[in-house]
Amino acid sequence: MSGKAALRRELLAARRLLTSEDVRNAAAVLASAAQDLPELTEARTVAAYVSVGREPGTHALLDALRARGVRVLLPVLMADNDLDWAAFEGAEHLVPAGRGLLEPDGARLGPRAVLDADAVLLPGLAVDRRGTRLGRGGGSYDRVLARLAAAGADPALIVLLYDDEVVALVPEEPHDHPVDAVVTPAGARRLRT
Question: What is the pTM of this model?
Answer without folding.
Answer: 0.94
